Predict the 3D structure of the following.
Amino acid sequence: MLLKVPEVLTVDQVKQCRAVMAEAKWIDGKVTAGYQSALEKNNMQLPEESEASQKLGSAVLSALSQNLIFMSAALPLKIFPPLFNCYQGGQSFGTHVDNAIRPVKGTPHKVRTDISATLFLSDPEEYDGGELVIEDTYGTHKVKLPAGHMVLYPSTSLHHVTAVSRGARLASFFWVQSMVRDDGQRTLLFDLDMAIQRVRHASPEKSAEVQLTGVYHNLLRRWADA
Ligand code: NI
């Protein structure tokens, strides 16, 4: 499932992130790339263990924990600490697939990447190019969202970022290990959860909602690891 999640960060929160990013020291983005993707990757990143990256990462994680659409769609078990990147001056990231397992630097923890996320921190008018292009079984999707909005997509997808020919494209990116590993099962649970919310608001009659909520949790019990 490819899902756009609007307003993960408010306009003010984006402004605060941008202020930190403007003062921060940037390094070559190849540091977190695997062998194949390093050949394709041309951008800048905040160093993972830098103060700026940690501060911004906490702000993103806190916003995610309060975002009901994200929680329902991703059913997160572990979230890789968010990273931050910048593309400008023709920089791009060629077609690649994200590494399946990512060690969290400085810890014994590893995250299996079920879901990839990009949280846009620049508005589309600020730069030309810089589309995130995701290939799935239904074709090719180009994504370029307002600042503060996020896209989630299965980490199994091939994807690339087109060259930024004007301005700068700032974003946060990270991965989620979901309690439900399979994208098809996760999508069903998300659709069911959204339908239950609609039933809750549409009908004063509670028994259908209770029964559907039971189905949701019993599917989750079958499919989830916690
Ligand atoms: Ni990628």
About this structure: The pocket of nickel (II) ion is lined by residues 96, 98, 159 (CB under 6 Å). The longest helix spans residues 183-202.
